[in-house]
Amino acid sequence: MKLPRLKSVSVLVALTLALGGCTEQGNHTSDGQLRIVTTTGILADLVRNVAGNRAYVSQLVPDGADPHSYEPSLRSIRDVAYADLAFSNYLLLEQHSIIKALDANLPKDSLSVSIAEEASKSGATILPLVENRSLDALWLGMRVAGQGAGATRASEVDLTVNRIEGSGEASSYLTTTFGSPEIAFSSSDGFDAGDGYAEDTTVLPYGAHQHMSWAFTKPGIYRIHISAKLRINDHARPQALKEGVLTFAVGVDPSEIASKEHRLILDHGHADVTVDLQSERITLMIDEVSAPPEVQRAQGAAFVPGLAAFDLENLVISVPPRTLTEVPGSAGFRFLGHPGDDIYILPQAVLGKHVHGEIDPHLWHDVHNAAAYVKVIRDKLIAVDPHGETYYRVQAEHYLKQLEEVDMYMNKKISKIPLEKRQLVTTNDAYAYLANAYGLTIAGYVAPHPGVEPSLADRRKLTSTIESLKIKAVFLEPQLHNRRSPLEAVAQQTGVSLCTLYGDTFDRNVNTYLAMVKANADELLACLAGRSEKQHHHNH
Amino acid sequence: MRMHHTTAHTIAKVGCALAIALASLITGTPSFAQPRDSEDPQLQQHVAADEKIEIGSAEIAAGHIDIGPRSREGSWSILARDDSGSEPVWRDPSELVIRVKDEALLEAPTGEDFAFMAAQPGEKYYVIPQTQNPEIVWLGWNTQDPQITRELARGATMRIGPIQGPGDVWLFLQDGAFGAPLRLADSRAEKPQDIWVDVNTHVHANWVFSAPGAYVARVSFLGEMSDGSQREAHTLLRFAVGNDVTADQVRTMALEEESTASTRSSETAPSAQGSDAGGDENKEEAGVAASTIAIGALVGVAGLVALAVILYRGRIVRKEIAQARAEQE
């Protein structure tokens, strides 16, 4: 449907140009200014700050419109046809027809810049696009590591869960090729010392490493008591190793228990519950790259290259609210509860989090990235208009200082929000850079990106997230106010404030990048710090 | 639940042995007393004392294998780390026959999540599982070569296809959180399929074959380095599915190319024994699939691919193989 439409647009443009082009000479405006076209208003503002009076800048996507879905108008395409230089964000941010309109209508000798892609090559922070947030959690497996206690390659380890404490039931299972589960342990049918906990024991061979799902039925703190026995061979008596207790914070903010019990939060990367044959106890082995440097390593633990060993009592494993899902209907999963019941899951495989390898395109919510954009803009302007070099450098330098100030402003405001309240709930998953740069957590959103209709389950999950994290405010983009947004409904239902956060586009009140960052900083502080009464931020 | 025994070689071991092996491949003890090729003193460093690149054909029916890119001298190759024997060895994947035994047969699924397989009730499919079964080969991939982890910007694309054989083949992942199986590759697809692999990760997924027989699949790894340059390498995976098909039938099976791809470098020709710096285009990538291609042009939009390709020989690696081969004889 879009192709023919674009074609006709192109044809019309050609006609328009044929008629209107008679009076125009070359690409420059009559006063010798460069003509620059950008996709979004945010890019246009950044460009204006560098290009100053040497360029006429226009934007394809009007303020208040969403670049993910906006289709270019005929008039805006005319701007493209006269442009010396075009800036898009891309990385799949803009609606594809915008990019096609640029490609098709920009004069051959004009320069087209995908600014996020350029910036990512020159120092901008880039984040992977998370395709499935519910898989964005710790990847927790089981492992047998080290030599000692007489173990050989023929030895086996029985890893047993003999008790749990917690607000609900806990279990762990493998999902086999065609989807049926194999239970490692499950608290729902009790723990039977009479048969040596046979039903809750996993047999691991020497040197094993395996991944499985970990499931919890209710939010709260869980303690999982683990024992391990080494069987050197089939005839030897099993030797018991020292027991250990794993601590999980499920669906709740882990920082409370972390600070109370002096634990570090383990919430991303890869870790294994490890039967350490060298130190004859149970440890957590964590990928060196994501291992917390401030926590002491386990003494005398086995060495595995690339991994670091930690004592269980120094860590709490976070199972965030975004991992909440529903018990499926198939009979094999009845050990988790009834179909449709809530269940929090650490997944057995996390590849699906990021299987297409794309980059999240919303780079500008980290002000350092906006600075990287500005440097790209400066360099491209100089390339197209070398006579203006000194001017562009001075302009850029001046604006970069303002960016530094606004970055400090954001940091200062966020630092006033108590740690456990720095939780973001938004319409779409578009604020990863904001969260990453300024220490916020993406607690949830209605749908991953615009155009995805939230299901009833999605809405329930969001409500439950807001309740279990005791969130006080959710954030809506200004153009979505008064549009019966599902987020507004969730806010009403849970009685939390509905606040405003600028994202992809400006509005009448805020139409520069600097103003946008300040407005977002002020709003985050006002809404999250919990001091203000119910907010009414409808923009006029 | 029981994770069985033959799994002594499991990911933990692999991870550690891999790191050690690769570290020693780079810095380790020379295993050749004399470098035969005086032009190339690097040869001395290629094979570790305790982990060799095993030359020649092999058949593996149980145990753990990982394939992945390995970087040497600015060029990529794909090697398989075979952990099925008493000592781990490195192999050229295209010289390997991966046997999927009759014990791997499972009742084919007919539920909604697996409608894409269009299995009939009572049918049985051959399965290499995502979670380990000690009786059956366990095939994964990784981007954990230490040199690779230093060079890669973010990760690599694993490209699978074409996959050819008498039945359909699927590669898919179970996330264990009740999601539908995540389909990664499908032999019925018209084009090769891309799977993103973050740097320094190790993944296993399910391989399903709908019928017994000989199968061959092209696998490529493509990556962008921190310095912006591109690397790629190709190889073939050969599967003997079922107990009846012979390893020779699998080895002699050629991959039918639908059309000449831009990176037409991988042939099913026998190994480039003793090949040196010369060699013609057709020998490219025989032996260890080693062509590293520096892509000089960008991949265009709308499926239009404009490649200005400079082919570097996988000279070093092939020399290394040739040398090791000579050493064994």
Automatic annotation (TrEMBL), chain A:
GO BP, one annotated term: cell adhesion
Entry-linked InterPro entries: ABC_LPXTG_lipo_actinobac, AdhesinB, Bact_metal-bind_prot9, Lipoprotein_PsaA-like, Surface-anchored_actinobac, ZnuA-like
A Gene Ontology molecular function term of the record: metal ion binding
Gene3D superfamilies on file: Nitrogenase molybdenum iron protein domain
Keyword list, A-Z: Signal, Transport
The keyword ATP-binding belongs to this UniProt entry's keyword annotation: no
Domain of life of the native organism: Bacteria
Key word Signal present: yes
A GO CC term assigned to this protein in UniProt: cell envelope
Pfam families xrefs: ZnuA
Family membership noted in the UniProt record: Belongs to the bacterial solute-binding protein 9 family.
NCBIfam families registered for this protein in UniProt: anch_rpt_subst, choice_anch_M, P_ac_wall_RPT
Protein name per Swiss-Prot or TrEMBL: Anchored repeat ABC transporter, substrate-binding protein
Organism: Galliscardovia ingluviei
